Amino acid sequence: MKKIHFIRFTAITLCLLAGIQAKSQQSAEADVIRKIFNEALTSYEAYHNLEWLCKNTAGRICGRPEAAEAVEFTRQLMNKMKLDSVWLQPIMVKSWDRGEKEVARIVSEKFGTIAVPSCALGWSVGTGDPGLSARVVEVKSLDELKSKSGNEIEGRIVFFNQPMKQTNLDTFTSYGETVWQRTDGPVEAGKLGAIGCVIRSMSIEIDDFPHTGITRYADDVKPIPAIAISTKAAEMLSDYLTVDSNLYFFFRTTCLAGPDVPSFNVIGEIRGSAFPNEIITIGGHLDAWDIAEGANDDGGGCIQSIEVLRLLQAAGIRPLHTIRAVMFMDEEVAQRGGQMYAKEAAAKGEKHIAALESDRGVFQPKALTVTGNPGQMKKLAEWQPLFDPYDIKLISGGGGADVGPLKKIYPKILLMGIIPEDQRYFKLHHAASDTFEQVDRREMQMGAAGIAALVYLYDKFGL
Amino acid sequence: MKKIHFIRFTAITLCLLAGIQAKSQQSAEADVIRKIFNEALTSYEAYHNLEWLCKNTAGRICGRPEAAEAVEFTRQLMNKMKLDSVWLQPIMVKSWDRGEKEVARIVSEKFGTIAVPSCALGWSVGTGDPGLSARVVEVKSLDELKSKSGNEIEGRIVFFNQPMKQTNLDTFTSYGETVWQRTDGPVEAGKLGAIGCVIRSMSIEIDDFPHTGITRYADDVKPIPAIAISTKAAEMLSDYLTVDSNLYFFFRTTCLAGPDVPSFNVIGEIRGSAFPNEIITIGGHLDAWDIAEGANDDGGGCIQSIEVLRLLQAAGIRPLHTIRAVMFMDEEVAQRGGQMYAKEAAAKGEKHIAALESDRGVFQPKALTVTGNPGQMKKLAEWQPLFDPYDIKLISGGGGADVGPLKKIYPKILLMGIIPEDQRYFKLHHAASDTFEQVDRREMQMGAAGIAALVYLYDKFGL
What is the spatial distance between Cα A327 and Cα A305, in angstroms, rounded to a whole number? Predict the structure, then answer.
């Protein structure tokens, strides 16, 4: 009996001690994380760097001189940080030139001639000098397009006008539902004999900004010129068509694809003190559309990635694993940066254990995500109290266009993510409105600090 | 036994039925609330009205013609809505004129003469035409000021330079900790013989915008001229003082208080179908500082209040109680609008059961608050699932400068509130940077819909 009592007593004591230890451990980690957030909230370095990037390398789509400027700027930024290593990873990227400012007009006997805000889709072919004029067939779905008979489409301009659903609370869902119009619309219209394509801008708001973005032609379909018009113009064109179905649409673009040209991913790392060959990648993509400063898509994500390294340094954290900030090139077009990064990792025999890409804007962070198995998610949930003060949820999810290729090579890699508030994102995305001024320093820094805190915990305790 | 079994059977059945009923009731309410949010997210009416208010009545501080314009505009807005009643409630407000653009300079033998961005505090006395020049005493707390000996302050300019704490996650806490400098600094400095007062702008960011706001003199202390300088200028002045403590500060203001003048609260209501004399007030304040468009402080709050009525109408809800939208005048200066509203309510024998003021910006809503007793809060918690889809928490809290006076007359009134995301608020508050462009339509509308949903449930079920 006595022995049992003693064992029970000891067990309870040990549990209590473990509890106390766990609690004081939590409290020590809370202090480190508070330090990271305090540094983030009081520093202007990242914000000023984003300003420089936006104002001096606006329009840095891959293959353009602005992209080369951005490569050099971020390389220099990281060089100054006393990281263990900073280097450029060469890739070949596609090139394309938008040419002269686009012209687009509705020409109606009833309404007269109305110029509308427009921009060519990325990698569209041009109309050539005389421009292109034709009658318009409006469709709101691929089924609707396919239900048309050949001679309804032949020689016409197809006008894709499926709006982003404003009632979705997750605006990324609305984007996912509609972006096919831009990526696949021109090729689908081309298959049916259309001679041009007008796309309602992928914007959650009704306003005057045209939004660009990649369109993808098929080898076996003759490419047709494609432009986006502002959502307000799309509403107008649709209204006019109901009254005057014979109206013409005219547009002129002189864009032209060029040859592949050299470019780079920009990489900086803090080498792991215990496991230098085990790598945690934090990235954003450095390229941004040629009509935009690309503050939220995705200059902010790049600058946050660099800031994560700085915040770890400033908090005096020497990580066990190697932590990298990667500015991926060419996310917007062919994701060659992400592919090369994964390919070279495999070739060098690196071991990639986790990766996160910040590419949903740099607004107030709502959640950090992990694509873990149930056991990992359970362990992650134990960290939730550490993020409660910052109102950041730890939930399931992750991935990103540039870290996706790593998953193919390292099936066990833990993909992570950050989900910021998204009400504003899709009114700015791929448009001239995505300026530095749209970014709030505190919001961006809260995101960087959140990522840094997650990286810190994962590096130290694993999942 | 049989009887007992039957009773038990019946009780269980009733419980189950009640459960099913409660569930289908919840689901019906969820549908109504979804309808409210859908209408909010797809409508541009409120947003366009806010644009008009910001662009055509900027600087609508009480007593100014812009305030009268704003009164007329919102009256007309509500008149067009087919409400049961729209009226103006007369009040007398203070008036004040900022005069010519302020001039402020640091004059140092070491650093030369440097102009700094500045604005007179609201209702400050002017320096008069020649301006005012004196040596500077910097303090960061009231204790520090009071610890100075008389001749350290006499004839000097006191420079209040306590920064808003950037590491607070709730920026309203930072404001609460520092705003004494602006409200009470000049009178405290005046007591000790200072001849002028320079205040570090109440801004969470380091930038070039001076932020104004009310200062309060005391009857028994000679008022001294007071200006705010931008946070960046405050940092510079502080740095320079460490090197050249003998530098002079010069400023010139020609502001002047005027007589009391007539103005109005603007009120619109949907009369209650069952309890017309029981009133739920939703309000914002119509006045905004004379250097600002006042988009977030508080044009947005006013427009949200009107939008709440429109959303109820659009959802086909005929409330049981009377629901009012009130544009309070004079929140920024003497809160006479709020006081008159409460006074007249008492005089008319109205019964006010709940009131909410939206005056924390119109960013993404994080929470709706209620100052209820434990029983009320328990009932409120039952509504939480209805707000989960919108990521809005129902928590304890409430109040507001203009609805506060109602509480004195109606001690049982339920004060409610809305808490939006606040990272951006205090870089805009009372400054020229608080423009329409800072407001996102979806975020503002999410707030209006959240308030409308809370009003709908409270009107129908009470708390």
Answer: 8
